[in-house]
Amino acid sequence: xxxxxxxxxxxxxxxxxxxxxxxxxxxxxxxxxxxxxxxxxxxxxxxxxxxxxxxxxxxxxxxxxxxxxxxxxxxxxxxxxxxxxxxxxxxxxxxxxxxxxxxxxxxxxxxxxxxxxxxxxxxxxxxxxxxxxxxxxxxxxxxxxxxxxxxxxxxxxxxxxxxxxxxxxxxxxxxxxxxxxxxxxxxxxxxxxxxxxxxxxxxxxxxxxxxxxxxxxxxxxxxxxxxxxxxxxxxxxxxxxx
Length: 242
Known about the structure:
By secondary structure, the protein is mostly helical. It has helices at about 5-10, 10-25, 30-45, 50-60, 65-75, 80-90, 90-105, 110-115, 120-130, 140-165, 180-190, 195-210, 220-240.
């Protein structure tokens, strides 16, 4: 028996944490430039180091942070900034709903911590792990989620700080803005395992592209709702054929 298996038998909760950290670590390849880009953008928008890092620690919302900083730089009203950022980040509500069957029985403080750590990356790897190991006890599921979030959040904080401090010296040729689309490609691809998943993904792409004229964030929400309906219909159809 290998050392890792011995550890999993002796202390399964600790093993779940390290397994989560291992599964979350590959996302450093995209989180790092994404975080750097936010730091650069925050500094160029006129935010001080304290403001930029305070924003980064409190919000932890990726794309919503970019949109909020961009709108603030354009002197948009505070209500518009908050409403737009909220609209873009409403996908987290869908993520949270999907996590309820797995983590809903956890104590309130643990659910609050999970809500803070919930990102595209942590949600994806955790759901895949829970589906692969349905027998996991609640304590292991919670610890796995925290483990998956640890490298992602650490990189998000650290490299945003680097971006704020040295952003002006990063050559434009580095093209850090590639990180956002690459992140979502890396997240979505492993989840396209059934016809329902593929149908939902295609629906979201088609609807989102056809609604690019809709005010910020709203088109994405409509596309997400349509994708969920199509995915559910395909799932129901597939089950009836079995």
